[in-house]
Write a structure and sequence with these properties.
Layout: H1 3-26, H2 29-50, H3 56-79, H4 82-94, H5 104-113, H6 116-124, H7 131-143, H8 147-154, H9 158-172, H10 182-204, E1 208-209, H11 215-231, H12 236-250, H13 275-290, H14 296-309, H15 318-331, H16 335-349, H17 351-361, H18 371-383, H19 387-400, E2 402-403, H20 404-416
Parallel strand pairs: 1-2
Helix pairs in contact: 1-2, 1-3, 1-6, 2-3, 3-4, 6-7, 7-9, 7-10, 8-9, 10-11, 10-12, 11-12, 12-13, 12-14, 13-14, 14-15, 15-16, 16-17, 17-18, 18-19, 19-20
Length: 419
């Protein structure tokens, strides 16, 4: 790995924390992002010349905070706020956050959470923003996802997401960038869980780029989910989300073959699945099911658990999975979940039953440009022996996908059917 790749990797993993630290000082998200970018530019200029620091993440954090403090100093000078300027200089020398930024209540909350990234998620999920804007903004700030990646996750146009992010930043600028009270956290929890879930999904199946997965995002989402378990141990959906992510992460070692090509779930070598993560996931699922009001993440974890408990693909209890999808759709209707249920029905009842359900979903507006609807149609058509139609569906799915690894897999499946 060369210097540029190393720096880019560290930047991707630390970006959210850097923006969070600067936003806490500046209370302006655009300026906070600028400070983090300035720190990256300094790293790109100095690390190749002077060598990579012993702790590059700490170097970036210190540099970002200095950038933010410099901006605060300029503000203070312009406003002739001499007392604030003196306090700022002292804070810069000690590498501490100035006293005037946070009150005592916020400081106590910070100690309670103790994680800059998780703090920023709760702050960005502010009630002045509608839910879609909360999630879009936080994914951009925390996950470092591009606007196009977020648009794919929501199945909406890219321009819509761009507008949400711009409006959300404007709405938050000037707000007190402090942690919500314990009672307010519950109000923001659903948005926070959605963010962590979507960060993991982008790591599990990257929406764009050359590689199928972005493991660093999966690791970050897992870490955040585990911290949420400690922070909110009586919330069923916190444990449900953690269970889902643990079980999904357990399969990551089996998702690529020796050549780095994607391996679909039925074809994976289950001996490669991480049994420790599965045990952690099943324990979290049990905890979620014992608490009041388990929801959609708990049900999704229950579906994942059916796969985790099956020693072989043919041992999977597909009828139970269909029943869990029925419960999930009754709780949280979604065309993507309906698509997944159709595939489960195909395994439980045969491809003809699945085809009827897929036909009903073909006109669903949100799925018109969704590559995995065409991929599901191709798989079912292949099982029905309709190879020419299956080949066309695989090619249609490949044309809709922005991920190079997924496109290669779909083209290979299409090519296999040429005869």
């Amino acid at each position: 790995m060369n210097q540029a790749e190393l720096t880019a990797g560290i930047w991707r993993s630390e970006r959210g924390r850097l923006v969070g630290a600067a936003a806490k000082l500046l209370r302006d998200l655009d300026e906070a992002e600028d400070c983090a970018q300035d720190a990256l530019i300094q790293a790109l200029e100095t690390w190749p010349r002077d060598g990579t620091p012993h702790n590059p993440a700490a170097w970036l954090m210190t540099t970002t905070r200095h950038q933010a403090l410099d901006r605060l100093r300029r503000r203070a000078m312009l406003a002739r706020e001499h007392e604030a300027l003196v306090a700022d200089d002292q804070a810069a020398e000690a590498h501490l956050v100035p006293d005037f930024v946070d009150g005592l209540d916020a400081a106590r909350s910070a100690a309670e959470i103790g994680d800059e990234l998780l703090r920023l998620i709760f702050i960005a999920c502010h009630p002045v923003l509608p839910r879609p804007a909360q999630v879009a903004l936080t994914l951009r700030l925390i996950g470092g996802l591009e606007t196009a990646d977020i648009a794919r996750a929501f199945l909406v146009p890219e321009a819509t997401i761009a507008q949400r992010i711009v409006r959300a930043k404007k709405a938050l600028n000037g707000q007190a960038f402090e942690l919500p009270s314990t009672a307010e956290r519950s109000e923001r929890l659903a948005a926070v869980l959605t963010v962590v879930y979507l960060i993991f999904n982008e790591g599990h199946s990257a929406g764009s780029g050359e590689t199928l997965m972005r493991p660093a995002l999966c690791d970050e989402a897992l870490r955040l989910a585990r911290q949420l378990q400690h922070l909110l141990p009586e919330e069923a959906e916190v444990h449900g989300l953690a269970a889902l992510l643990e079980i999904q992460a357990s399969r990551l070692p089996a998702r690529l073959d020796a050549q780095g090509q994607p391996v679909l779930l039925p074809d994976q070598d289950r001996r490669l699945w991480d049994r420790l993560l599965i045990r952690r996931g099943l324990t979290a699922l049990s905890r979620a099911e014992q608490l009041p009001a388990p929801g959609s993440y708990t049900l999704q974890a229950a579906i994942a658990a059916h796969h985790a408990r099956a020693a072989r693909a043919q041992d999977t209890d597909w009828a139970a999975i269909v029943r869990d999808y029925d419960r999930l759709l009754a709780l949280a209707p979604s065309p993507v979940l309906a698509l997944n249920r159709a595939l489960a029905v195909g395994q439980a009842q045969g491809p003809q039953a699945a085809w009827a359900l897929l036909q009903a979903l073909a006109d669903e507006p949100q799925l018109q440009h969704y590559p995995w609807l065409a991929g599901a149609q191709a798989d079912v058509l292949e099982r029905l022996g309709r190879q020419a139609e299956a080949r066309e569906a695989y090619l249609r799915a490949a044309a809709l996908s922005d991920n190079a690894a997924q496109r290669r897999l779909l083209h290979e499946r299409a090519a296999r059917l040429k005869g």
